[in-house]
Amino acid sequence: MENGTKQIWGFRGNEELKIASEITVRGFLNLLMFHVNKDDDRPTVPLGHGDPSAFPSFRTTGIAEDAIVDALRTANYNCYAPTVGVLPARRSIADYLSRDLPYKLSPDDVYLTIGCTQAIEVILTVLARPGANILLPRPGFSYYEARAACSRLEVRHFDLLPEKGWEVNLEAVEALADQNTVAMVIINPGNPCGNVYSHQHLEKIAETARKLGILVITDEVYNHLTFGSNPFVPMGTFGSIAPVITLGSISKRWIVPGWRCGWLVTNDPNGILRKTGIVDSIKGCLDVSSDPATFIQGAIPQILENTKEDFFSKIIFIIREAANLCYERIKEIPCITCPYKPEGSMFTMVKLNLCLLEDIGDDMEFCLKLAKEESVIVLPGIAMGMKNWLRITIAIELSTLGDGLARIKAFCQRHAKNNKI
């Protein structure tokens, strides 16, 4: 500058966004990938993410692919979509979800979003007001924390109980809630725990929400991806007890996370969400945000209505086999314990026993060194709110999973105190 004066600019980055991004799964995975040894000739084993679509066994059904092509070629979906989504897609989603409910949803209950992540953004934005707080599960999906931080919505955590199949600690929920609590979040089937809640437990959750005067946000992006003793029961079943907001997408069940088409659904037979202005706020939020691609919306009816059951059965069979393999192999690694055999979703949570390891202070250090030494990516528990735990992906080729677990075992043996593992 002239005369040596320093130019002063009137803009700067938003530090809150940087902090929020660092606590997301994507933020943790990017950090771990940076530490992989580039000189290691072995392929990196991705046991940290929830995207199995890269593996041949998890390719989506041809019916879904054909639906996309058909919708595109009609030229009916080259225009802007309505704020809430195209009517045929909303009607199809309402019919699809109503199969499991004691009442019938209307297309007006359904709002299309850019994947389940935008559905999370919308509902947290709608609920955010000065002084409000929301109850989130621990462990849970860190995107809720990140979005709550962006919306300046206070977060309070209730624990899930591993000894009870990761059920919600409902006593803790009641103790945490106050007059400023707006909602509680559940994830069923569970990410990161692989649990599936029973009908009885879900009913108790609804009754607790009613007692506290809050709504339930239920993340059901893994709906029907179950392979244990508990069948999937949608939280919306209990919408007459307490209002329920259901979040979902085609991402996981159809193995197409990159298509980015999800939904937010109001399960509220008593009309409470409309009376309290939540419905209008959802529409208002969508008015100032982007929409999922219209040709993907146009493909939704064909995808939901024509996919054969054998496609879903095949996916569930592979994940069940992977869950069995993971659970048994972890028993061979003394410093890691799996308290609950996964019965749904695509993950399991395992606990670290750091007393058996040298030169590893916590779960983050474990994962960083594992990435560097073995080219295996596992998500540290701190990313899900559980320090000194790990989240392992089971939606992966069996051979790749076996290779990854073998490398984890070798890593633990190498870092064992006095080489006793």
Automatic annotation (TrEMBL):
Family label: Belongs to the class-I pyridoxal-phosphate-dependent aminotransferase family.
Xref: Gene3D superfamilies: Aspartate Aminotransferase, domain 1, Type I PLP-dependent aspartate aminotransferase-like (Major domain)
Which InterPro entries does the protein's record reference? Aminotransferase_I/II_large, PyrdxlP-dep_Trfase, PyrdxlP-dep_Trfase_major, PyrdxlP-dep_Trfase_small, TyrNic_aminoTrfase
Keyword Lipid metabolism assigned to the entry: answer is: no
Highest taxon of the lineage: Eukaryota
Q: Which PANTHER family does the entry mention?
A: TYROSINE AMINOTRANSFERASE
Residues bearing the modification N6-(pyridoxal phosphate)lysine: K252
The cross-references to Pfam families, in alphabetical order and at most eight, read: Aminotran_1_2
Swiss-Prot/TrEMBL GO biological process terms: L-tyrosine catabolic process
Residue limits of the Aminotransferase class I/classII large domain? Answer: 47-400
Cofactor(s), names only, from the UniProt record = pyridoxal 5'-phosphate
Q: What molecular function does GO assign, one term?
A: pyridoxal phosphate binding
- Designated name of the protein: Aminotransferase class I/classII large domain-containing protein
Keywords of this protein's UniProt record, alphabetized?
Pyridoxal phosphate
